[in-house]
Specification:
The protein is mostly beta strands. Helix content is about 10%, strand content about 35%.
Length: about 150
C-alpha cells in the first residue's frame, strides 16, 4: 500500500475516533437504522460510520466499516479489544509486524474475529468491498507497528 493510502487509513481512523454517532432514538426510545439512513464518510481505503457510543470516550462503541476493493491497512495494533463480525463480502486478515499481503487469510460473511489488545494485525479487501461491524471499548486507538 502506498504511504499516501496508509496515511489516509490512519487519518480516517483518527477522524472516526473523534466522531460520535449522529443517529438518535425515535420518540419511543428505539434506534432503528436502515441502509438509507447511513451517511458514509468519503474515505479512500475504507468508509465508516459510528452507530452507537463514542470511540473517543471510555465505554462501548459500535462502528460499521466498509473496506473498499484492493485496499488494506499496514501492521498496527489497538489498545483495547475489538470484536468484529463480517456482515458482507470477504474480509482479508493477517497478523504480525511484517507486512505480507500474500499471507492474507479470507474471513467470509457471517464470521467473527477478535482483535485482542496490543496484538499486531492488518486487514482489508481484495477484489470486492466488505462490510464489518466493529464493537469495541473506548477510547479507540490505532498504533502503527510495521517492521521493514
Amino acid at each position: 500500500m502506498p504511504t499516501r493510502t496508509l496515511i489516509a487509513v490512519f487519518a480516517l481512523f483518527s477522524a472516526l475516533v473523534s466522531a460520535q454517532s449522529p443517529l438518535k432514538p425515535d420518540a419511543q426510545g428505539f434506534l432503528r437504522v436502515l441502509p438509507e439512513d447511513l451517511s458514509w464518510n468519503n474515505g479512500t481505503a475504507m468508509q465508516a460510520i459510528v452507530i452507537a457510543g463514542d470511540p473517543n470516550k471510555p465505554g462501548i462503541y459500535v462502528v460499521l466499516q466498509k473496506w473498499l476493493p484492493h485496499k488494506n491497512s499496514r501492521p498496527h495494533f489497538h489498545a483495547n479489544d475489538r470484536f468484529i463480525t463480517v456482515l458482507s463480502g470477504t474480509w482479508w486478515v493477517n497478523t504480525g509486524p511484517k507486512y505480507d499481503p500474500e499471507g492474507f487469510k479470507p474471513v467470509p460473511a457471517g464470521s467473527f474475529v477478535t482483535h485482542f489488545k496490543n496484538e499486531i494485525h492488518y486487514d482489508g479487501a481484495k477484489d470486492a468491498e466488505c462490510l464489518l461491524q466493529i464493537v469495541g471499548i473506548g477510547p479507540a486507538t490505532s498504533m502503527p507497528a510495521e517492521t521493514k
